[in-house]
Amino acid sequence: MFSKALLLASTVSSLALPPPNVNLQALLSTPLTIIRDDPSATPLTKQTQKSSDDDDDDPLPVILWHGLGDASNAAGLKDTADLIEEVHPGTYVHLITATSLPDDRSASFFGNVTEQIDTVCQALLNDPILSTAPAVDAVGFSQGGQFLRGYIERCNNPPVRSLLTFGSQHNGISAFERCKSATDFVCHAANALLKSSTVWSHYVQSHLVPAQYYRDSDDYENYLNYSNFLADVNNERPHKNETYKKNLASLENFVMVMFEDDQTVIPKESGWFAQVNTTSGNVTGLREWEIYTEDWIGLRALDEKGGLQFETVKGEHMRLREKDLKRLFAEYFGAERKKFGSEKVNKVYGVDEMKIDLR
Asked: Which contiguous run of DSSP H or E holds residue 310?
């Protein structure tokens, strides 16, 4: 058993629940899986890889931040980097790690998110290619999405042009995941941790990564007072950080992708920044609550200039179809002088977009 699972075990014992007999990492691991296109489908060709806007202009570098239970050297992340380079040949892709590589996966579970973002800010600034680029594009998978948003709000150097997030928890989680059975003690213990007052302790808020983006509408005051990460980057506290708002509004594109059949992120609508009442389950779309109407972090300004996009893709959490990734990479990444808003990319890939209107 991984030793840091003792963090969960010690809390569980105070809740009079059975101690976990399985690694917390095993419970919550949802590594990225790319579902390859049908071999009979028309392959991506050099002719369709670039639009006229890309001619004689190198593609911007791309940074990727993986999700909970994944690692920067995992197969899914490497496959994603290959797809980006396939769509935009010559792209420099940087796979983010918040710590040294052997501990990268562990750091997605255990660590201080604020300190991890500081580490990433410094690492990107020191990268000889990224630091000299006019801008970069960014992909965040699951929790990596809100962490990249934290990077943009807090430092944004090098600056991000297009941010794509997949199944991210922009408005937090209210549970780790749905437990498969009443006897799944590890799952129930993990969720009990979030529902207990222990989740707001300094120790948990500075050591257990998912707890730092836990948000319960029925426990909002404690969330505002003690959340180590999410309440800050969402600018929900009375004092608003104007730099956060300015930096996020500076994006050209913020594309939030939600998985249609997501059973891991609770609530899945958090991927679209929607607010879900913990008790009733009622969903308040982004454009209907204060973070947007009062423009706490620049989302309204971004939307008004046409830079805020809502997308859905078929499938479960972190199971992505190759054609969806190619379409999005073609549409939002590429040359520095790229013009956005073209309809021709969707026709090239023949993607059937599905929209769920929570706005």
From this structure: strand 308-313
Q: What are phi and psi of 196, to 5 degrees?
A: -95, 165
**What are the CA-CA distances from residue 66 to residues 1, 30, 55, 162, 204 (Å)?**
23, 10, 31, 17, 22
Instruction: Extract the tokens encoding 70.
Output: 């994944």
Catalytic residue among 66, 94, 188, 317: 317
What domains are defined for the chain? 50-349 (3.40.50.1820)
Alpha-carbon distance of 92 to 137, in angstroms, equals 10
Alpha-helical (H) ranges within the chain are 6-14, 24-28, 46-49, 75-87, 104-107, 113-126, 143-154, 185-195, 202-207, 220-226, 230-233, 242-249, 290-293, 299-304, 322-332, 344-349
- Of 108, 142, 168, 174, the catalytic one is 142
Question: What is the tens place of the pLDDT at every residue in 246-294?
Answer: 999 999 999 999 999 888 888 899 999 998 887 888 889 999 999 999 9
Is 56 a known active-site residue? no
31 — pLDDT class (breaks 50, 70, 90): confident
Over 70: is that where the pLDDT of 27 sits?
Answer: no
SS3 assignment, position 223: helix
Pairing of strands 275-276, 283-284: antiparallel
Question: Is 146:117 a contact under the CB 8 Å cutoff?
Answer: no
258, 358 Cβ separation under 8 angstroms: no
Distance from C-alpha of 359 to C-alpha of 124, rounded to nearest angstrom: 34
Q: Is 262 part of the annotated catalytic residue set?
A: yes
Nearest CA to 209 among 44, 47, 25?
A: 25
> Is 217 annotated as catalytic?
no
pTM of the predicted model as reported, rounded to 2 decimal places: 0.84
Pairing verdict, β 62-65 and 136-141: parallel
Q: Which amino acid is at 205?
A: Q
Catalytic residue of the set 104, 262, 295, 303: 262
> Which distant-in-sequence residues (6+ apart) come within 8 Å of 31 by Cβ?
67, 69, 70, 74, 76, 318
